[in-house]
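Self-study notes.
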Amino acid sequence: MPKVATETGWPSTNITQNQQGKLWVNVFLSAAKKNWSHTFSYLMFDEPRAENSGYGLFAAEPSLNTTTATPKLSGTYIHSMTTIVHDTTSAFTPIALNCSIPGESATVHDLLQKSNGTYELAVWVIKLSGRVTPLLLTWAAQSRPLRSTT
């Protein structure tokens, strides 16, 4: 049976827009890592008159005119993520690549291969702090340190 996440979201009234954006990216990456088939947001646009202000990916507009709505940081983060992982087709056979992160948790990364043969490595950790976390990524026989600032 396919698994889906519905009505997901956090109001930016209780946390910062930066934190909200990180939570959204985490939700989509974690759902993909777990092979969930669909993930839905609670609201696309803030609806302050409906007493659920802050949940949207776009800031509330007085007229709620969706053609002029301004994206919040969460909307920008999701747009950036989907732009990076976008592919033109899923009709190809992925090729395995030896990649590991020592001591990783179950949802810390996902390696995505595109139809043109390139790979995208999504690295994240479920936390809201702004600490710098050093990572050592191992690609086949090569290693190089990276810094994360999120």
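Second protein, same conventions, sequence then structure:
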Amino acid sequence: MNTMRAMCLLAVFVLTASWLASGQYVAVSGNCELPGQAVVVSGLVQAGTQPLSGSPFTTGSGVMASYPQCLVTVYPAGSATPVPTGNIYSTSSGAALGNPFTANTDGAWTFYAASSCYDVVLSSGTGPANQLPATKTLSGKCAGLGNASGNIHGLSFTIGAPGGTALTAGANTTDYLTIPFACVIQAYNLAIDAGTITVKFWKIATGTAIPTSSNSISTSGESISTGTAIHSATLTDFTTTTVNQNDIVAMNVSTVSGAAYVNGVLQCQ
């Protein structure tokens, strides 16, 4: 690990630790709303929408509708089991909040939680005015430094040295990084000194072991076949883009030819 990367990650870790030590939880908020809904006026259902200035008229289009006091259920990102009651809160200082809970009369909802990523499911409440036509899932709603501040973080992995000994593929050609904040991967970057390369990213929750190939979040891997650098926001090869606080992430060289150095950066927000 180079000195600059170590200093940057230490600074982020100290900020995260100070935030959590203060007893403050981070807000996640949204609204009970669905797009493409029709407005009914005096029994007449709208046929479409148009700009306030007039044409063009768009047949079959609708509006964003609010459904006050819908039911809000919070899950850990990627899980089918709701967050246990007592682990989400109604205030930043930790006042109790049930799970599920009912949104406000204006359709807005907010919960506070420890730094991590969550899936939020909106469903019908108990009154006639809050019956959602369809359940809506909001995936990857993150609470924490990476999301709440709007910062984009670079999770940087480096293997080898430019012009040095040629890299070989294998389990030991790997760089590891513990991420002290929650974020969602938005893009990736690769740079090599020569040749071609394919890398895979591994990820495991914090614990007593580092990730291995069995924890891969890459399907075929991310590659450079021409040139020496690539930036891409196409993430279809990733099985998940959610990084939870203190996850251990690794970059592994799965195939390589003629390269002695590779740097990979996951753009995470």
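Instructor comment on the second fold: DSSP finds two helices and 21 strands in the chain.
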